[in-house]
Amino acid sequence: MRIAITGGTGFVGRHLARQLVSEGHEAVLIARGLDGRDTEIRSLPNSSFFPIGTDDEDKLAHAFALCDGVAHCAGINREIGEQTYCRVHIEGTRNVVNAARRAGVKKVALLSFLRARPRCGSPYHESKWAAEEIVRASGLDYTILKAGVIYGKGDHMLDHLSHAFHTFPVFALVGLSEKPVRPTAVEDVVRVLQAALIEGRLSRKTVTVTGPEEMSLGEAVRRVARATGKRPFMFRLPLFAHYFFAWCFERTMTIPLVSLAQVRILSEGIAEPMPPCERLPDDLVPRIPFTEGQIRRGLPEPTRFGLKDCRCFASIPGQTKVGL
């Protein structure tokens, strides 16, 4: 089968593409081409790369030609310039849906967020919900994955925690009380996307995709620290302080250590969907545990944060500009 993937060079997108190709399918990678973390993905065998965003319906329709399904994985967790939540999550999803209809695509799978919902005061959550509603009203066959924290090789969570632990002797936990989280391995998310797109399962369903074990956010962070071999001093910091630091990180780092949207996400906990939605059938329920061994398989090279992570140095020759 031929599957198009928006955000095809991003974290989930490239894992999905590699798995599809390994099973004999064809992947059509759609991305703006600014993510430099894995340049090899653009020359993946049995795939094609379209350096476009989701803001051009005509180009998307051309890229979707002869595709059996679309995995809509494109998204942002902070706004930069014209890349706003409205433009990427809402208008981008509308363009994807319209282009899919024009190209005769049979199935769209949307990767959404576990607690995306309307009228909650968070532009990130609200725009993700609006994207869900566009897909549900599209008239196309669809599956919507409401996923929580997704981790694995090349993600932001393990990458930034690892760099933080190798840079700072202390680490500030979000808020003054513990919140629950269910980390989900990217391999499990890919398995659900494949079931929807290749096997035609989960038709017209919105499903919860969360990991097999619920734990506190603090415990999840401590497991990552142990996997890196570091023992930073951990302490709790009020939410207002995290919002302040996130505001600063968004303006100074190419990929923020934490964004404003992520602070809101972490402050709520990431274990139960909001609003409630359907559970996965037993054979698709995520089963990979968040163990230290599994964490180590996803860790990046043990390096510190440096000048390359600052936006003001990102365009210096020899530096790689990523995450925008």
| CATH topology group of one domain | Rossmann fold
CATH superfamily of one domain: NAD(P)-binding Rossmann-like Domain
CATH architecture of one domain: 3-Layer(aba) Sandwich
* Helical amount: 25-40%
Extended strand count: 13
Order of helices and strands: EHEEHEHEHEEHEEEHEEHEHHH
How far apart the termini lie comes to 30 Å
* Low-pLDDT segments: 315-324
Q: Count the helices. How many?
A: 10
Query: What does the largest sheet look like?
Result: 7 strands, parallel
> Order of strands across the biggest sheet?
3-2-1-4-5-6-11
* Global mean pLDDT: 93
β-strand percent reads: 15-25%
Main CATH class of one domain: Alpha Beta
Global geometry: globular
Structural class: alpha/beta
Q: Measured on Cα atoms, how large is the radius of gyration?
A: 19 Å
Topology record:
Elements (H helix, E strand, L loop, with lengths): L1 E5 L4 H12 L3 E5 L16 E4 L6 H7 L5 E4 L12 H19 L3 E7 L9 H14 L4 E7 L2 E2 L5 H11 L2 E5 L5 E2 L2 E2 H12 L7 E5 L5 E2 H12 L4 E5 L1 H14 L7 H9 L23 H7 L26
Parallel strand pairs: 1-2, 1-4, 2-3, 4-5, 5-6, 6-11, 7-10, 8-13
Antiparallel strand pairs: 9-12
